[in-house]
Hints:
42% of the residues lie in helices and 23% in strands. It is of the alpha+beta class.
Amino acid sequence: MTQTKQILHxxxxxxxxxxxxxxxxxxxxxxxxxxxxxxHAVYGTNFGSVDRAFTQNGKTVKLPAGIAHxxxxxxxxxxxxxxxxxxxxxxxxxNAFTGFDRTCYVFTATQHIxxxxxxxLSFVSRPYxxxxxxxxxxxxxxxxxxxxxxxxxxRMMFALLQSIYHNNxxxxxxxxxxxxxxxxxxxxxxxxxxxxxxxxxxxLSAAGNITMEELVAAVERQGLRxxxxxxxxxxxxxxxxxxxxxxxxxMAVAQPTFGIxxxxxxxxxxxxxxCDVICDMLTELICGDFTPLFRRLYDEGxxxxxxxxxxxxxxDYLCFFFxxxxxxxxxxxxxxxCEIARxxxxxxxxxxxxxxxxxxxxxxxGDLESIENVATTMAGCEMRGETLFEQLEVLAxxxxxxxxxTLEQMLCEERSATVVIRPAQKSKG
Length: 429
């Protein structure tokens, strides 16, 4: 059932993990960590909220927004009951999450590891849907969607994405809408699991007090079979322009929230991870808490400690976000754009680059001390065609010139969009 095991070792940090691809296509990743009592396991599929259409066996299937997240909820139950009850009996703590490009099911345990692995693999690999259970979940997730509607940060992120993308499904809420999830049927869910919840599209990753042999044994107990036919994801073309340069709305917030997003051209899969590392570094060099911009705005009372930048990237999208609470959104936007222009013109200070690179390298090394971070990172990297040590190697070889060159090509004002959430006026009673 197995192929040759690969031993992946990084000399810089003296850390080893193992990789094994089974005959059914499932990729196993294991990082035995001596001295750790616990195990963290991740069972992930390359199926997320942006996957909204595919072909299989000559049939094209279009999916409503939120179906990947809906599946995440439904995969915790079958004819025998719900997985959480079974996990509780073993002492394991379980959860799951859906992102733009993946869905992952996880558990952490210190005992009864084989039993916990059996629960994880059996529920996720053997879906069970009925009309009644789907209708019940539609009500539950509908309430969750309404709850997220009250989150300013969540609303800000998707308002920004909707401002810079015309067609890319990344612009749609991961949970969908009450209207979109109403379109979900058991038949549609089974089509998704047949297409994407198959060994060749999935990764089982574990770290801590565990061996590769234990993972192999768990998979063998389930008898997982490969997919009868591969599925091909379909994507809509996305123009380079942005649909909405400015958007403003009101919510029940204490003070205004400002956000600006920059739409970038996606890079090739081979370049993506290196690009992501550089882009992450750029957000820190522009508005990290050690930068002149952050200190100036903070000292003037225009931002608080939550003001930050982040990067969003996938197979066919790449963008920057900068956001936070501020009493003067227009001033903060102007200062941010001026700082980006200054760094492009004058260049990034070498000492700032070295400080940022060292901080990021230190964080990456520190992550290798956490079984949760190791297992999650191994799974995520594998699903993107990378390895656990990719970030360390990129950071070790990165130069100031690399970062400066990327900055000069990105973060252009003409491909940016601004969103402001203003406090709703209280009615006089």
